[in-house]
Write a structure and sequence with these properties.
Length: about 220
Amino acid sequence: MLPFPSRSLVVSCQATASSPLRDPDPMARMARAAEEGGAVAIRANGPADVAAIARAVAIPIIGINKTGDPRGVYITPTADAAGEVVAAGARLVAVDGTTRPRPDGATLAEQIARIHDEYGVPVMADVDHHEAGLAAREAGADIVATTLSGYTGPGPVPEGPDLELVASLVAALDCPVIAEGRYWTPEQAREAVEAGAYAVVVGTAITNPGALTGRFRRALS
Ligand SMILES: CC(=O)N[C@H](C=O)[C@@H](O)[C@H](O)[C@H](O)COP(=O)(O)O
């Protein structure tokens, strides 16, 4: 059902508003480099980046559309936001799959149903907890991803990935589980597929040279 094989790598090509790489062309070049390196799909944010990347690569794009307040539901918070990235060339859409209230008052099930009916693409639910993963699947998600683990609580964001959440979702769900969030090393990515993840999405560790530079700098101070 997914347009890429299991045990494979998806590369997230995103840049924040303040990044020198914040432009569709650098993101498209990143995506081409990732494709050359063997990525099976690209995760990308916003219609402009998705359109540029779709022109640059042959592999499918998981589109997201970050809108609104990053402290709340902001990864593709509405069906309309999903439609914009599908129109730009995304073959799948990832949406916030947490149980937090959505900005337009829709339920996750309503959002997913509209995406299926109106745009005809599979939906990946980015969740933060085990229960949210179960609820997202119940709500119709085709894929569940661990993307938001560590980002919705009051505490600091952990350093490493949430492999326990990968394993618990794999054990409980009848759909592909994608590991995403703070995968820094190939070993961690392999652990995720060994825990049953269908694929691993890596962003910062491959496509964010500013963050990588900071990591090395901090290690030296
Ligand atoms: C929490 C949130 O907003 N995550 C975003 C989701 O698209 C991106 O900022 C991440 O870079 C992406 O999930 C990949 O993760 P990492 O960059 O850790 O490999």
